[in-house]
């Protein structure tokens, strides 16, 4: 979603701001803009579309000044257009905003009563207008911002710049993350560490309700009550925030290729060199609970659906899985005998965070599985389990998904062990299989050339179906999501056994059916389902191991052969061909793979 950067330095701000916005491109956006103070006056440049349009504009119409703010906008209120792009300005006030102001119509009414008109359709413009209004009444910039913050409802990360105030940035956060970067004689503000990465490795994350008054030589932070507070400065690992494609054409390709490495790292993190689990803190007590509630959005939701198969089978704990946006408003009962587990790559997804807050104080334990350890979801959990995927830039989640699966399987194993359902031999067998997984993932990556060829044919399709049974069903859902989000081909997934209850009506020679089916105990059932498809002229693309492809017999349209792994690990391994199929189909179609249309990386609005 939207990205924010602020710069108070000794160099020209515009090039720094544009570079930082480039690093934030991965979050998804549809317009961008910057404002600086030039000779004491605010000036703005804004452009719709990709950042290159803003850069072009700046070549023809440069912006001078050593203080500035910048923004990439993912439209919520009002179409993507130059007029609606941030920064928004009202007289001496310029502001950039991430999030949604829910009561902005109240401000519009209030401002309209005073005869004040609007240049944009956005909620953000009303903030600039209100701050100007308070300054017209005699408030200082700082007092005016503090005053409007007490009235804002909704979510925001805000950054202000003022006419005549070349040494002042005011930042505020509620619901949308913001970080202040510490420099030498310079200071910065960013919506995430990546924005700030090359500028500094010293970062202070603002907490809910904080307002920061930043100059080149000082950073003062006040909490929601206006009290000055100390927030810890952390040193971030520049490696983790490094943003380069390492020779790949797209971030998504790089991130798919990184999976053997990062999954190997996660396995070593949790098992060390032995077979005993090392969970952080006091660990989790899985005894005496009657159920687990797993909540997430999108790809992370599919990871939870997979975990349901594992936790129920291995640990015997009933698991409910919910989409966060549904869960939070359904007001489901959450007893003290439940563990609530939230899965999120970014750790900032608004719906998942709201669902977590709903469960806090009700469930026995709030557990999270996250990629960003400093994120809100991690911080508000009793225990946050890192997935250690490293920075994921491609909007379509790949390595975060497989690392989420890996950590969720480890959770299932720990639950099973504690409940006496996993003996040491079986545990050692599974851990050994896990340790061998990176090598298998490398073999799966070796299918890339064949997958790329197949994708040329898949790119011709208008619709694609994905089928899976048992623990492979959520992976079929994920395969379909990956394909539709980056190639824009309509794709649906079904549990193989459900096909004949309706979706089989869609089958004809134009609808490829991707079947994810290792040669496991359910395989024969899936073969019957494939026969049903083929009998109706359907084209089956089977992803299976050697034995599975042989057993499926003639009539298969195409196949991709996977190495053999322990059954439990198949969803992790088979994620690779699902991702590669989507990736190469999107490349064949020429879509914007890393920043697909309409999508944002970190969804911080409801
Ligand atoms: C799809 C994708 C999204 C995210 C979802 C949740 O490829 O990435 O569906 O999985 O928006 O995001 P997080 O995991 O950050 O909560």
Automatic annotation (TrEMBL):
**Subunit structure of this entry?**
Homodimer.
Q: In this protein, which residues make up the domain named SIS? A: 282-421, 454-596
Q: Does the keyword Nucleus apply?
A: no
State the active site.
2, 601
Q: Which organism is it from?
A: Pseudooceanicola atlanticus
Instruction: Give the reactions, separated by semicolons, that this protein catalyses.
Output: D-fructose 6-phosphate + L-glutamine = D-glucosamine 6-phosphate + L-glutamate
* Glutamine amidotransferase type-2 domain mapped to chain residues: 2-217
Name the PANTHER family for this protein: GLUCOSAMINE--FRUCTOSE-6-PHOSPHATE AMINOTRANSFERASE, ISOMERIZING (PTHR10937), GLUTAMINE--FRUCTOSE-6-PHOSPHATE TRANSAMINASE (ISOMERIZING) (PTHR10937:SF0)
Q: Name one GO cellular component term.
A: cytosol
Q: What does this protein do?
A: Catalyzes the first step in hexosamine metabolism, converting fructose-6P into glucosamine-6P using glutamine as a nitrogen source.
Q: What is its main location?
A: cytoplasm
UniProt KW Cytoplasm keyword: yes
Q: By its UniProt entry, which InterPro entries does this protein fall under? A: GATase_2_dom (IPR017932), GFAT (IPR005855), GFAT_N (IPR047084), GlmS/AgaS_SIS (IPR035466), GlmS/FrlB_SIS (IPR035490), Ntn_hydrolases_N (IPR029055), SIS_dom (IPR001347), SIS_dom_sf (IPR046348)
UniProt-recorded name of the protein: Glutamine--fructose-6-phosphate aminotransferase [isomerizing]
The alphabetized UniProt keywords are: Aminotransferase, Cytoplasm, Glutamine amidotransferase, Repeat, Transferase
- In the record, what terms sit under GO molecular function? carbohydrate derivative binding; glutamine-fructose-6-phosphate transaminase (isomerizing) activity
Query: Where in the cell is the protein located?
Result: Cytoplasm
Q: Per UniProt, what is one Pfam family of this protein?
A: SIS
User: What PROSITE patterns would the database entry show?
Assistant: GATASE_TYPE_2, SIS
Task: Return the CDD domains for the record.
Answer: GFAT, SIS_GlmS_GlmD_1, SIS_GlmS_GlmD_2
One GO biological process this protein is involved in is:
protein N-linked glycosylation
Q: What's the Enzyme Commission number for this chain?
A: 2.6.1.16
